[in-house]
TrEMBL record:
Stated name of the protein: RagB/SusD family nutrient uptake outer membrane protein
Location(s) in or outside the cell: Cell outer membrane
PROSITE patterns reported for this sequence: PROKAR_LIPOPROTEIN (PS51257)
RagB/SusD domain span: 284-564
Any single Pfam family the record assigns to this protein: SusD_RagB
Domain (SusD-like N-terminal): residue spans on this chain: 40-213
Similarity comment: Belongs to the SusD family.
Native species: Spirosoma endbachense
Keyword Signal: yes
Signal peptide: 1-21
Chief site of localization: membrane
Cellular component, GO, one term: cell outer membrane
Top-rank taxon, per record: Bacteria
Keywords carried by this UniProt record: Cell outer membrane, Membrane, Signal
Length: 564
């Protein structure tokens, strides 16, 4: 009987963690054997593992959930009012979706890990241990998001019986994190540094998730040690071309093996496509722009001399694209930039109803500019800026297969440097890690004068995380773990100049020591010259997402986060 319940439980949890399953309880599965009888050999175990990988792609509108999370922060926005505005409640669809996606991944992993014991003797030990380890990393990945987005969460490590659905309680965050560590350590002891196949978990990825978990939990020595293991043993390096990381061609080559784990899309499956570029691409290029950067993101990038724009001698507010950190042009499209999106090359313009397009012969022609007057475009719906990251890929945006990067080596270097800075262990390894990332971006190396100054290095590493990792799903967590969300969030959404002939003043970053430390720009006095959207708000309860009310309705033993 227990074997039937394993299947039923997995089926129910693929819809939601604690949804009702009563209609299924008297039915025998008609389209698959019970999972307890299923994993008899390596082929069947591989099929189960593939299902977990598929479930770990948390998809919203054919777009990875992690790719929209920066839109809930101070550096980006989504066209429709969303979590960033701070006025959602316990019925909001996003917390519900993330909770459901995570527990679906967990339940599928639990089902595989228990079910595969049946066929253990039929599989070579090395293959069995690898399959098991990959499933454990995927389960830890799901718990990582749950614990840092919801805090205390139910810790479920086996397939639930129907009688257990309504008795789950929230496990303390500290205990869940200990479980994550134990899972990742066990997996790292088994897995090879390189993945068995592209898109699979590896020893490097397991240790990377350990470092990320520890950094976010302020266990800096654990984070530094895990990152250092990767730096010393994995044989990874940076792609010399930052922009190639976010194109299909560049990802296929994966120079330097920088990309450690990404969501892959297969040519063999016509439906295996992503709308990640489409949702951000210029309307003039045929895109459906619904996600936009904020001006704050633009202004956090350094000038070419390595100085913040309020301190640089080479920054010109009338020409904000010039003399800047080269990562800026691969992250944000600014009016006046020449961009190639959706197999079209054009001059991005929001100030007039025509713009220049390059035709197939290389000649330039003038044509209608939808970025100027489209009701859903960047000037009418956004704040005059476009995402460049993941949109400059040479693909048809309606059939794109560029993969979303879940982990790459640059993040490992930055995590190592940040952890060591927080520990005040300011040795050459910290500066070398930062300089590898800065040199790739064409930025000067870390100034000798600040190499032993913990606070100045903290300021620099926080700015580096924005410049390097913007739009990759980290900012939501960073402003919370640094304790700056109450300053970064409650401001109006600012954009580009409304009139290019009236250049707004540069923002100030020194409203307070916290603003200065975290390079948070303030636009007092220039708001009337810029595109501006809604005011955003901040309340302490927004530190965590609410436990979805639908889950609490099903299981009253689930408590709610403070303030919700």
């Amino acid at each position: 009987m227990k074997k039937r319940f394993l299947y039923i439980t997995s089926l129910c949890l693929s819809m939601t963690l604690f949804s009702g399953c009563k209609d299924y309880l008297e039915q025998v599965p008609l389209d698959a054997p019970a999972t307890g009888q299923f994993f008899n050999n390596q082929t069947e175990m591989n099929v189960a593992l593939n299902g977990i990988y598929k479930s770990a792609y948390w998809n919203t509108g054919n777009t990875p959930y992690q790719s929209i999370m920066d839109g809930w922060t101070d550096i980006a926005l989504l066209r429709a009012v969303d979590l960033g505005e701070g006025n959602f409640d316990v019925f909001n669809a996003h917390p519900k979706a993330i909770w459901t996606f995570a527990y679906t991944t967990i339940q599928q992993a639990n089902t595989m890990l228990e079910g595969m014991e049946v066929g253990k003797n039929n599989v070579p030990a090395a293959a069995y241990n690898r399959l098991q380890a990959e499933a454990r990393v995927l389960r830890a990945y799901a718990y990582f998001y749950l614990v840092f987005m919801f805090g205390d969460v139910p810790l479920i490590t086996k397939p639930l019986l129907p009688t257990e659905f309504y008795s789950q309680t929230r496990t303390p965050k500290a205990d869940v994190i200990k479980f994550i560590y134990s899972e990742l350590d066990a997996a790292a002891a088994v897995l090879a540094w390189a993945p068995a196949d592209p898109g699979r978990m590896s020893k490097a990825v397991a240790l990377g998730y350990k470092a990320r978990t520890a950094l976010f939990n302020k266990e800096y020595q654990v984070a530094a040690d895990a990152a250092k293991q990767i730096m010393d043993g994995a044989g990874l390096n940076l792609n010399p071309n930052f922009g190639e990381l976010f194109t299909r061609t560049g990802q296929t080559a994966n120079a330097g093996k920088e990309i450690m784990y990404q969501i892959l899309h297969s040519e063999a499956d016509a439906n295996s496509i992503t709308y990640l570029p489409l949702g951000s691409i210029s309307r003039a290029a045929g895109g459906q722009s619904g996600r936009f950067p904020q001006q704050r993101l633009v202004d956090m990038f350094e000038a070419k001399d390595g100085k913040r724009i309020d301190e640089s001698a080479v920054y010109d507010p009338a020409k904000p694209s010039r003399n800047r950190d080269l990562r800026l042009k691969y992250t944000v499209a600014i009016p006046g930039d020449t961009i190639s999106m959706n197999l079209k090359t054009l001059v991005y313009d929001i100030y007039k109803n025509t713009t220049s397009f390059r035709n197939a012969s290389g000649a330039w022609t003038t044509s209608t500019n939808a970025d100027f007057d489209n009701a859903f475009g960047p000037s009418k719906s956004g704040v005059g800026l476009l995402h460049a990251k993941y949109t400059l890929t040479a693909e048809d945006a309606f059939t794109a297969r560029v993969g979303f990067i879940m982990m790459r080596y640059a993040e490992i270097l930055l995590m190592y440097a940040e952890a060591k800075i927080e520990l005040n262990q300011l040795d050459d390894s910290v500066i070398n890690a930062m300089n590898l990332v800065r040199k790739r971006a064409g930025q000067p190396t870390v100034e000798v004068a600040i190499q032993k100054d913990q606070n100045k290095l903290r300021q620099l590493i926080r700015r580096e995380r924005v410049a390097e990792l913007a739009m990759e799903g980290f900012r939501w967590f960073d402003i919370r773990r640094w304790g700056i969300a109450d300053i970064a969030m409650p401001q109006p959404v600012m954009g580009a100049a409304k009139d290019p002939a009236k250049v707004p003043a540069s923002p100030t970053f020194k409203t307070s020591t916290t603003h200065d430390l975290n390079s948070i720009p303030v636009y007092t006095g220039s708001e009337n010259l810029r595109y501006v959207r809604e005011n955003r708000f901040w309340y302490p309860k927004l530190t965590l997402l609410p436990v979805p009310q639908s889950e609490r309705d099903i299981n009253p033993l689930l408590t709610q986060n403070s303030g919700w």
